[in-house]
Fold this sequence. Notes:
This protein is mainly beta. The chain is built from 2 helices and 13 strands.
Amino acid sequence: MPKHVRSAARELALALLVVSLSAGVGAAQSAANGLLGIFFDAQGTKCEGTLGQGGITTLYIVLVANGDTRGGIAGGELRVEAESSGYRLFGPHPFEQFTPVGDPFGSGVYLGAKCQSGVAIPIYSFQVQNLGGSGDGVISITPPSTPSNPEFPCALVLLCDTPAFTKICVRPGKAVLNPTGSVACGSGAASSEWGRVKELYR
């Protein structure tokens, strides 16, 4: 990507972050506005899989849109956490349209983008390595350690409603590596969204 394009994209992300910081308390919040999950595919249809010891695979952060987010998103904020030390997360890479500020594996990442829409919107990819983790290795989406606005302590996205960029809290999801069947991946309320996505790719 040319230097001037990268610079413009970063400026957009920072501008959206400033808007996010100043957003009012009245911004919409609803569990019906989509699932921000971790998947084994960029279409957001598979949230569990096997990974042998020493193995490496790619996971994807995808917004499965619903409600207000069906109109598209222009950024968001989130953090990624491995609940077991037996799995190492590395190589975070935003999809080209998203410009990040921060570290998704650290205190969190804030993202800006031109409006992106679709049933499933891929946001990030990253790698995970099995360093000896046992079954049911959970990797989940959480809020940033320091939310940009304390009134929104959640994983969230920004709507495309320029200039407001309304904040929307969304359901955080999780992926399960080497599942035993005792831990459910994704979100229990997300089956309808997954069904819509799967229908598109049949």
